[in-house]
Amino acid sequence: MPHGTFARFIWPSFLAMILFIALPIVSVAMQSFFVEHEQVMREVENCGPFKCTTVLQVDLEATEALKADAPLGRYNGLGTYTNRGHLAFDEVSEIWAGADSFGNFIAGVYNLPFYKALFFTLAYTFVVTPLVIVFGLLIALGVNRLPRVTKGPTIFASLLPMIVTPLIGGLILFWMVDADGIIGATLQIIFDDPDLSLKASAPLTWIMLMVYGVWHSTPFAFVVFYAGLQTVPSDTLEAAKIDGASRFQQVRYVIVPYMMPLLVFITLMQLMDNFRVLEPIVSFSAEAKARSLSWIIYNDLSGQDKLFGSAAATSMLTILGVAILLTPVLIKTWRDFNRRAV
Amino acid sequence: MSIITRLTVASTALGMTAGVAFADCPVTSGSVRILANDFPALHAVVDNAEACVGEGAEFSKNHSTKHNEIQVAALTANPAEYTTKIVANSSIVPLLNDGLIRPLDDLVAKHGQNLQPNQLIRIDGKIMAIAFMANAQHLIVRQDILDQVGKEVPTSYEEVLDVAEAIRAAGIMEYPFAMLTKSDWNLGEEVVNMYLGHGGEFFKPGTAEVSINNEQGVATLNMLKSLMEYSNPDFLTYNTGAVTPLWESGELAMAVLWGSSVGGLIDDEGSTPEIVAATKPAGAMTVAGGATPASSLWWDGFTIASNISDEDAEATFIAMVNGISDDMVMANNDKAVWLMDSYTPGLAAEGVAAAASAGANPYPMLPYMGLLHSAFFQEVPDFLQGNESAEQTLADIEAAYTAAAKEQGFLK
């Protein structure tokens, strides 16, 4: 394609990407280098219905003047990135100096909010992503073998978890796994333990969140694989059958290699999606047991005191995390692309 | 129905039923736009304010439980999205910090003759809000179950432990106790209450430097942990919405809840007559032999936005004063603990009244208190789940608060 045609063809999406993706990210990055102005405070007497107290209150005029001088706030450089709420360099080196064993060091680092969230986020990503791919493929293979009449309804039913809004789906499951809910009560009977509560124990909460993640994302993988299955060349499959390939061997040596690009695509999407897990944590009220990077951002921005700088820094670190996760997959795709081009 | 006809109907209805409560009512010009939390007492106030808005004036309202999240943005706009925000002693702080609400001295002098002196919230000598109801957390008990185990109504948290053990030992309930311990704002409030009960100071006097890593802090955390032994293991998901159904279905014998929830527990909905009859509000409890109740007092009141015209401010003030009129109080007596004179305290109010008369402290109205509150609920779950020591948790709270306070400019 001539470069001119290409440019004319691409510029609307290019413009949209700059406006809606690049600029917001630049703005967030800017925000992460700034913190609020120093609050000028003075003692005042406050009287309420119950009693009067002398307290510190923000001196409006003085603080306003500071804000008018520099609307972005105080420049803090990478200070927000390295404070305790984020990468916590000082704290980590202190823990390193004070720890008498490697286990102690890990426990100390795990106590810091960012690393704790990072650990859960990575665990969630690396458990949910492969399971989603495996289940998606199995369901697609299964549905593909169904008789034509039952195919439509089955596909529709399999897509349901993806159609339900994540927050709502999470809330529905939250009440079902309650000790009085249908799943919670059934589990208590199965394990013969009247105190069994999925919400009370940290490992069970993690498992519950991951099961939810697999339940919610599998339909996506299924749909993509199912579409891919329709294009698998039947002559290759027939040739494999004539050569005596079993059903498993057909899948392993014909279908999976043929659908490799799709698999890479789903892996990319799932790594990105799972790395920013948030909704199940909110709807399962699981904040006490499991926090993700996105939850930290959400927590910084909700409530009445909003920590914009902190949220921006966590956002940038999340983007960095996604980039690191995707690098191996992208390198592989790039190599394949080049090989094909030759 | 268009807005105009609706307003006409509303004002006619007012004329027919309640009579005109104030000479200023109805307001016929300006605009009244209300942002408020979403619970029955505030519905009553806002509906009465609406009744005062006559033809020629505009009215709109937004009841939302997320009111605190939008208030600063909504009032920063010029003109402000809302002319009044109904606040509590913590949610007024961000508005004060940014100068988004105006002093009300002139308006009070002009239209506030019926207000009680204790309703006027003065900050640095200026009236910034008009309080109309009080709230506090206190104990609620099932008298029938206490009778079964032969125990008195607890007056301290130590007695709660004792009674809870007796109920468990008698095989009545495994988990007889609950409080609002969901690991969000709710848990932070319980830590604040318990720490106040231990007589603790949150900050070094005259500074924004936190000082909770002390004996009272350790005692606070340990008491919470002991109490949670008698609360269902799901306690970290318990907010008002989770605990009230448990109470109404008879699964709890003692609970610490907001005074404003009691009305819903003793009405004839959602529960059996036996449970309702046995549900008794008790006072706020002390802890560790202290004299001050381990509970904080809250008020709800209305403020007027800065970024609006004086005409709108006056219209809004008149409407809101009508919203908290004696007629409203008499018609909604049991929905809240009203601060107005016409209020007759009923059963639902006993707990809050007891907490106030026992000298409970108001929730600290400090610009940086919200940051400490967040640090509490982010770090305390680790301790309650037995993952770390009380000292470690307190150190974590201080570190988390300090990082946030530095970012917000309260600490250097």
Automatic annotation (TrEMBL), chain A:
<feature type="transmembrane region" description="Helical">
    <location>
        <begin position="204"/>
        <end position="229"/>
    </location>
</feature>
<feature type="transmembrane region" description="Helical">
    <location>
        <begin position="9"/>
        <end position="34"/>
    </location>
</feature>
<keyword id="KW-1133">Transmembrane helix</keyword>
<feature type="domain" description="ABC transmembrane type-1">
    <location>
        <begin position="118"/>
        <end position="329"/>
    </location>
</feature>
<feature type="transmembrane region" description="Helical">
    <location>
        <begin position="307"/>
        <end position="331"/>
    </location>
</feature>
<keyword id="KW-0472">Membrane</keyword>
<feature type="transmembrane region" description="Helical">
    <location>
        <begin position="155"/>
        <end position="177"/>
    </location>
</feature>
<feature type="transmembrane region" description="Helical">
    <location>
        <begin position="117"/>
        <end position="143"/>
    </location>
</feature>
<dbReference type="Pfam" id="PF00528">
    <property type="entry name" value="BPD_transp_1"/>
</dbReference>
<dbReference type="GO" id="GO:0005886">
    <property type="term" value="C:plasma membrane"/>
</dbReference>
<dbReference type="InterPro" id="IPR051393">
    <property type="entry name" value="ABC_transporter_permease"/>
</dbReference>
<feature type="transmembrane region" description="Helical">
    <location>
        <begin position="250"/>
        <end position="272"/>
    </location>
</feature>
<dbReference type="InterPro" id="IPR035906">
    <property type="entry name" value="MetI-like_sf"/>
</dbReference>
<dbReference type="GO" id="GO:0055085">
    <property type="term" value="P:transmembrane transport"/>
</dbReference>
<dbReference type="InterPro" id="IPR000515">
    <property type="entry name" value="MetI-like"/>
</dbReference>
<keyword id="KW-1003">Cell membrane</keyword>
<keyword id="KW-0812">Transmembrane</keyword>
<keyword id="KW-0813">Transport</keyword>
<protein>
    <submittedName>
        <fullName>Carbohydrate ABC transporter membrane protein 1 (CUT1 family)</fullName>
    </submittedName>
</protein>
<comment type="similarity">
    <text>Belongs to the binding-protein-dependent transport system permease family.</text>
</comment>
Automatic annotation (TrEMBL), chain B:
<dbReference type="InterPro" id="IPR006059">
    <property type="entry name" value="SBP"/>
</dbReference>
<keyword id="KW-0449">Lipoprotein</keyword>
<keyword id="KW-0472">Membrane</keyword>
<dbReference type="Pfam" id="PF01547">
    <property type="entry name" value="SBP_bac_1"/>
</dbReference>
<keyword id="KW-0732">Signal</keyword>
<comment type="similarity">
    <text>Belongs to the bacterial solute-binding protein 1 family.</text>
</comment>
<keyword id="KW-0564">Palmitate</keyword>
<protein>
    <submittedName>
        <fullName>Carbohydrate ABC transporter substrate-binding protein (CUT1 family)</fullName>
    </submittedName>
</protein>
<feature type="signal peptide">
    <location>
        <begin position="1"/>
        <end position="23"/>
    </location>
</feature>
<keyword id="KW-1003">Cell membrane</keyword>
<dbReference type="InterPro" id="IPR050490">
    <property type="entry name" value="Bact_solute-bd_prot1"/>
</dbReference>
<dbReference type="GO" id="GO:0042597">
    <property type="term" value="C:periplasmic space"/>
</dbReference>
